[in-house]
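Supplementary Methods S3. Complex input for the S-adenosylmethionine-bound model.
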Amino acid sequence: MSGTLYLVATPIGNLGDLSVRALDTLRGADFIAAEDTRVTAKLLRHFEIKKPCVSYYEHNKHASGEKILARLLAGETCALVTDAGTPAISDPGEDLVRLCAQNGVPVVAIPGCCAAVTALAVSGLPTQRFCFEGFLAASGRHRTERLAQLKTEPRTMIFYEAPHKLLRTLEDLLDTFGDRDITLCRELTKLHEETLRTTIRGALEHFRETAPKGEFVLIVRGARPEAEACSEADALARVAQLQREGLSLKDACRQAAAETGLAKNALYRAALDQG
Ligand code: SAM
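Predicted complex, serialized as structure tokens:
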């Protein structure tokens, strides 16, 4: 009979968030598969767990996955952990779960922290319907196309982001979506945990002044439903308001178009016609 693959969620900062069941599973497994064995070694040391570890990460997942599968098929139990949070969520694990499922090996989740859900819960934005986008492509066509597709996404959106890419992402979000509500969660469960509920423009202003540090989850309000779509008159009023706030006509039209979903050029012409 084959053993079981346990997906063990680990803390995203505060070690107190490791569940009793996670501890029992780590203690009871025959071996642990870890994204970075050095990171996991610290966790195991803290909880005084001695257990053989193998590495399973993005660049060895095919070879290592086959070895782990062979051990599972031979009857051993494996606890899969990543550096933080839930395995298989923007982390290694998805392929191993599929491999086990295809080979009849039971997969059991030991749930715990997930940065996306933790951030969504405190965001103050609608939580009934949401979509998880993980990391955007760093640049290029995939990034621009994905953002363009998301412009009309009505559900609350969840993004992961690294501090050094945050400003660029906020700029791209503003350009594509227009100004919208956003909640930025930084260093969740850690000493310098911070939740900033603002707009995309507000976040840009804030992080241009204060360099972003730590890990971020961005929760962005979805697009307004069609029924609430703006008329041209409303959009022109918004253009006028943005101009009063100091934007050039061109920038105001770009911003209002992004916010309302109306075509930028048509709005620009209408604004010129209006004089
Ligand atoms: N599997 C993990 C989970 O369940 O949350 C996510 C792993 S992904 C490689 C790492 C990203 O998660 C970070 O870049 C950041 O966006 C987010 N993240 C992880 N820990 C976080 C924390 N303590 N505070 C805010 N964001 C965090």
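The chain has eleven helices and ten strands. The radius of gyration is 23 Å.
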